[in-house]
Design a protein that fits this description.
The structure holds 2 protein chains of 2 kinds.
Chain A lengths: L6 H26 L9 H31 L7 H24 L12 E6 L8 H9 L7 E6 L2 H9 L4 E4 L3 H11 L1 E4 L2 E4 L3 H8 L7 H10 L4 H7 L3 E2 L21 E4 L2 H8 L1
Parallel strand pairs in A: 3-7
Antiparallel strand pairs in A: 1-2, 1-3, 2-6, 4-5
Chain B lengths: L14 H4 E3 H8 L3 H11 L17 E3 H8 L2 H21 L3 H9 L7 H7 L3 H6 L1 H12 L11 H20 L3 E6 L4 E7 L2 E7 L13 H25 L10 H5 L3 H11 L9 H11 L8 H12 L7 H13 L3 H7 L6 E4 L5 H10 L3 E4 L15 E3 L13 E3 L2 H9 L24 H4 L4 H17 L8 H43 L3 H6 L2 H35 L2 H39 L1
Parallel strand pairs in B: 6-7, 6-8, 8-9
Antiparallel strand pairs in B: 1-2, 3-4, 4-5
The chains are: A alpha+beta, B alpha/beta.
Chain lengths: 275, 604
């Protein structure tokens, strides 16, 4: 509805319209004796048409806005200094990564607080080293402010350490897991994403693993069950909302006052801001 | 132009002075159209429809007093401040002055809608009457995601979720829920709060997809107003049952996605007054107690406050409260029936059933409920569970001491106000049709089969109450006596009706014989005259029928002639409506017949 109004006025308008319909119908039947013709008031028809036109224009306007934003990036002139700086940043990131892997010793995955990890890609630079880019694609964190659920294993934690400046991760609680899946979850079936508006699609995709409804999916993700891998791959990365005041998103680790890296339980506060 | 300004040679009177078009109103107020729309929504101003449209039929007209009403509101100045502030921020960013931009963003101008709530709803009952749209909107936005493109903010969605849970917790606590209905759009609820029936719609607990056909600016303005309204109403309702507002939830239960249960626990624990009550509430109570006396001394006030604080230390304070609440609750028989429907029943919810909805409904009717997961009051292996709500084709483990029913059973029991038999709702079976409690079957003229069954079950449940005279409850005794009187009266009426029918039949038979003028002896004597007599009888019957029809038609025509034209039109409209209703009922019956025939064909 374009102009939602209290139902009392709508009811009153409907009553008036109904009376008009009845009167005209009575007159027609009295005069001609034929069957009653459908009657809708002219202003109602006009309003309906205006609403439809507005919807069409709104859709076109949004599409044009998206196209304009996409075209802004093209045709920009890059100077040689930009290329040099980009290359040096890549090399520096790579060297830092190797140093980080050498110096930092990860605790075993079994000693962590939870087996479920939620990783969010934070806004960062475009100058990614190919190695990091490959790992981010493997984790499905290719877009800024997207998140995925991961199982806390040694291999996963090592990968997260490799790409630490570009992500933040932690251990979500059941409330946030449920909120994310219910509100932002998108399934992936037949090479196409779709919103989780029906349990039939979930049963069709994951029924062989005993997951037949949305709540089963939440339970499997939250408890890191035996079919976590299939359930997690079924869910597309969650698109999170940019907050009103843009986050600073510094590249320093969270414990050092920045925004990247392991937040442990503090990830819940961040998720509540973004979801 | 308003009426008070009259340049020379230009006078305005009548509709030209009373009404103003939208464009001129926007110019007069010197705000943008979007701000004008927002202000109209918040202040409750809507377009009028004058009989004489001075500037054409295609324009929107507002009453001049409404526009003056908007012009004198402080909000209009506040909106101008917000606009100026936004321009300043934009300018600071354009000049790359980040420090100034940050400082401006840290101190945005804000406004409150509290005054508008008091302005539009002077009494609490007025606010309750207008709560249907408010609750539906808040529950809708509680289920929506915060999408990037739209201007739906995350904080607003969390606020709507909190408000909706608080409202549901109050309804559940006071057992005010009366009707439920599951439809394609969502789940309808109807509650009765302080004598007002409130109906709202909650979306299903699945993902909601936002379409681009909806103008969210208008909806967000309505939502802004409704959030404030529901906050006020929750405040007053919570304090009416001696519970602090806003509630402080258990963070552990909150983290486990159990806000509604945490709220119910908070309301149970926060029931005791005393230290938890604010001082203002005590003063309000004092004011109510001393309405008769116009003066209140300070010493008396202090003494009364001390007296109020005293009972918290006595052991009988809780009993007093319980008696008070019992006396207050005894007034409403409907509430009593609702609070004890699921008493002594213990429910366990499986994972796949709509948990939030059932956590709201089952405690509202006196039941105990638990679910799977941490933070639940009891586990699945508890032997005292009477019903387990399931919706899955296979079960991992089946306990023999409980019944496994589908979720629809709960909703149908709530609408029928009795515990329905569970055979039809067992897992794997197609449940009976889910009937709407908002439809009056007698007025519609068509009663579905299952509604008839429910009526019979209700009558049986009522009759079970009759052979229990030993209960000492006065209400029960009165209802028993009334039931007995009604039953005896109906029996007498039935007997009288039967006698009258027999007498009428005899009279009709004798009249017919007298009219024919024949006796049995004459009939046996002649055979050929019988044929002639039969034909004569037939003709006579036809004449009688024709005369009857003519008499009826004459009577109707006479009554119609006596009516005025308006009354005649109204009568015709009523007849058309009745005809339409009959057609609808016939269509339903035809569908039912087709369904039955197809079912029997499948049965073969």
């Amino acid at each position: 509805p374009r102009n939602p109004s209290p139902s009392r006025r709508s009811a009153a308008a409907a009553v008036v319209q109904g009376e008009a319909c009845v009167e005209i119908a009575a007159t027609m039947m009295a005069e001609e004796g034929t069957q009653q013709l459908p009657y809708v008031r002219e202003t109602v028809l006009k309003k309906r048409k205006v609403n439809e036109d507005w919807a069409v224009k709104n859709r076109e306007r949004k599409a044009a806005k998206r196209q304009r934003r996409r075209d802004d990036g093209k045709g920009a002139i890059k100077r040689p200094e930009d290329f040099v700086r980009e290359f040096r940043n890549k090399e520096l990131d790579f060297v830092r990564m190797k140093t980080r892997l050498k110096v930092r010793k990860l605790p075993p995955a079994e000693t962590l607080n939870s087996k479920l990890v939620f990783a969010i890609r934070i806004p960062g630079t475009m100058d990614l080293h190919p190695h990091m880019r490959r790992i981010l694609r493997k984790l499905r964190l290719t877009q800024v402010l997207t998140g995925v659920f991961l199982k806390a294993t040694d291999a996963t934690m090592k990968r997260l350490l490799v790409v630490e400046p570009f992500i933040t991760y932690g251990f979500p609680n059941l409330k946030n897991v449920k909120d994310l899946i219910y509100k932002k979850g998108r399934g992936f079936l037949d090479k196409e994403p779709f919103p989780l508006t029906s349990n039939d699609l979930i049963e069709k995709a994951l029924g062989e693993y005993g997951i037949i409804c949305l709540e089963d999916l939440v339970h499997e993700i939250a408890s890191v069950g035996p079919h976590f891998r299939e359930a997690s791959n079924f869910l597309m990365p969650f698109k999170l909302k940019c907050p009103e005041r843009r986050l600073q998103m510094k590249k320093k680790p969270f414990k050092d006052g920045g925004d990247s890296g392991n937040r442990e339980d503090k990830i819940n506060e961040l998720i509540e801001k973004l979801n | 132009m308003p009426k008070h300004y009259r340049p020379a040679g230009k006078k305005k009177e009548g509709n030209a002075a009373k009404y103003i078009t939208r464009t001129k109103a926007v110019k007069y107020l010197q705000i943008s159209l979007a701000t004008f729309r927002k202000l109209c929504i918040l202040k409750g101003v809507f377009p009028r429809d004058p009989k004489k449209k001075v500037e054409g039929n295609h324009k929107t007209y507002y009453h001049m007093k409404d526009i003056a009403f908007l012009a004198h509101d402080p909000l209009i100045e506040k909106f101008r401040e917000i606009k100026v502030h936004r321009k300043k921020v934009k300018k600071a960013f354009a000049k790359k002055n980040k420090d100034l931009a940050d400082r401006l963003l840290n101190r945005p101008p804000t406004y409150k809608l509290d005054r508008l709530i008091l302005e539009r709803y002077p009494t609490f009952v007025d606010a309750l009457r207008d709560l249907d749209d408010c609750l539906t909107m808040v529950h809708l936005f509680a289920a929506l995601p915060a999408v990037e493109g739209e201007r739906v903010q995350v904080q607003r969605i969390h606020n709507c979720r909190r408000l909706s849970h608080e409202w549901q917790a109050y309804i559940s606590r006071t057992h005010s829920l009366r009707k439920t209905f599951i439809s394609v759009k969502g789940i309808y609820y109807q509650a009765e709060v302080q004598g007002q029936k409130i109906t709202w719609l909650t979306p299903h607990a699945l993902q909601q997809v936002l379409t681009d056909d909806v103008d969210f600016n208008v909806m967000l303005t309505f939502l802004e107003f409704y959030e404030t309204l529901l906050g006020f109403i929750n405040f007053k309702l919570y304090h009416s049952i001696n519970v602090n507002y806003p509630p402080v939830l258990d963070p552990r239960l909150e983290a486990l996605a159990s806000e509604l249960y945490a709220l119910c626990r908070y309301m149970s624990s926060g029931r005791v007054p005393g230290n938890s009550e604010p001082a203002g509430l005590i003063e309000d109570k004092e004011g109510e107690d001393n309405k008769e006396s116009s003066k209140t001394d300070e010493s008396e006030l202090r003494l009364a406050q001390l007296q109020h604080q005293l009972p918290t230390n006595e052991p009988g304070a809780l009993m007093h409260l319980v008696q008070e609440s019992t006396a207050a609750d005894a007034d409403d028989a409907d509430a009593k029936e609702c609070r004890s429907l699921f008493k002594n029943l213990k429910f366990y919810l499986s994972r796949e059933v709509p948990r939030e909805s059932l956590l709201f409904i089952i405690p509202a009717f006196g039941g105990t409920v638990s679910w799977e997961g941490e933070g639940a009051p009891f586990d699945e292996t508890d032997e005292d569970i009477t019903h387990q709500i399931v919706d899955r084709p296979t079960q991992s483990h089946v306990f023999l001491s409980r019944e496994y029913v589908q979720p629809q059973w709960i909703y149908d029991c709530v609408n029928a106000r009795i515990i329905l038999p569970t055979e039809g709702y067992i897992v794997g079976r197609v449940p009976p049709p889910h009937l709407s409690p908002f439809v009056d079957n007698d007025a519609e003229g068509y009663i579905p089969e299952y509604a008839e069954t429910i009526k019979r079950l209700q009558a049986a449940a009522q009759s079970q109450v009759l052979p229990l005279p030993s209960l000492g409850d006065e209400d029960m005794e009165n209802s028993l006596v009334e039931a007995i009187i009604d039953r005896s009266e109906s029996n007498e009426i039935a007997d009288k009706k039967r006698k009258l029918e027999m007498l009428e039949k005899q009279y009709h038979d004798e009249l017919r014989m007298e009219y024919e003028g024949k006796t049995f002896s004459n009939r046996t004597a002649d055979n050929q005259p019988d044929v002639v007599d039969k034909s004569d009888t037939k003709e006579a019957d036809d004449h009688m029928e024709d005369s009857h029809k003519q008499a009826e038609k004459d009577a109707a025509d006479i009554s119609k002639t006596l009516m005025s034209r308006k009354q005649r039109g109204l009568l015709q409209a009523i007849e058309i409506n009745q005809e339409r209703k009959k057609d609808k009922v016939n269509l339903l019956k035809k569908r039912k017949k087709n369904a039955d025939s197809s079912a029997s064909a499948k049965g073969r």
